[in-house]
Amino acid sequence: xxxxxxxxxxxxxxxxxxxxxxxxxxxxxxxxxxxxxxxxxxxxxxxxxxxxxxxxxxxxxxxxxxxxxxxxxxxxxxxxxxxxxxxxxxxxxxxxxxxxxxxxxxxxxxxxxxxx
Amino acid sequence: xxxxxxxxxxxxxxxxxxxxxxxxxxxxxxxxxxxxxxxxxxxxxxxxxxxxxxxxxxxxxxxxxxxxxxxxxxxxxxxxxxxxxxxxxxxxxxxxxxxxxxxxxxxx
Lengths: 116, 108
Fold this sequence. Notes:
The complex is a heterodimer of chains A (116) and B (108). By secondary structure, chain A is mostly beta strands. Chain A has no helices and 13 strands. Chain A is globular. The N and C termini of chain A lie far apart (37 Å). Chain B has strands at 3-5, 10-14, 19-21, 24-26, 32-38, 45-49, 60-61, 72-74, 83-91, 95-98, 102-107. In chain B, strands 2, 5, 6, 9, 10 and 11 form a six-stranded mixed sheet that branches. In chain B, a hairpin with a 3-residue loop joins strand 9 (83-91) and strand 10. Chain A binds chain B through residues 31, 33, 35, 40-45, 48, 50, 58, 90, 92, 94, 96, 101-102, 104-110, and chain B through 6, 9, 32, 34, 36, 43-46, 49, 51, 86, 90, 93-101.
C-alpha cells in the first residue's frame, strides 16, 4: 500500500517566516504534487515534479517554491509566509507505468498551516 | 483550457434515496476522469476511475463524451457515504485538475 507521509499535521508560523513543508513517499513514484485545499475552491495545484530535480508550476505557484533532491521527497517552501497562505496543504504522488496507463494519485494526510 | 465543474457545493439526501453528484468537464483531448472521496478526518482517496468501469461501494460513474459529464451515482445512499467528493481530470499526461468538490450529507 502506498504511503505518503507529510511531516506535520498542524503548523503555526508568523508572517514573513520561511516555511518548509515536507512530503515523503515510499513507492518509488516519479510524480509528486503539492496542492492547497480551500473550502469552495477544491484542490488547486501549486507545483508538481515528474523526476528528481525537475519541477513545473501548477495553477497557483506565486509565493511558493519546491525542491526535489531525492525521488522520495518533495518539499514545499513558502519563501516569506503571508496570511493568505493559511490553508490545508496536500501532498500526492503517482506513477505512470508502461502498459498500465496513468495511475491515480495517492495523498498524504495534509498539513493545516496557519500564518499569524 | 481544461476545467472541471461540480455545480453543487452541498447535496443532502435521506438514507435509502438515490444520489447523483454532478461533474462536467472541459478538455480538448481524450479525457481520463476520476472520483475521489474524503471522509471526515481521513485522507483523500480514490473512489473510482472511468476506465475501470467498476462499481465501488455501490457507486458508479459513466463518462458521457457528448454531454462532457462524469456524474457519480448510487441508487440507495447510506449514512456512511457522507463525505466530500471531488471529480478530477487527468491532463497533460500526469497532471490532475480537481473540481471544487461536493459535500454529500446523508440524513438518517
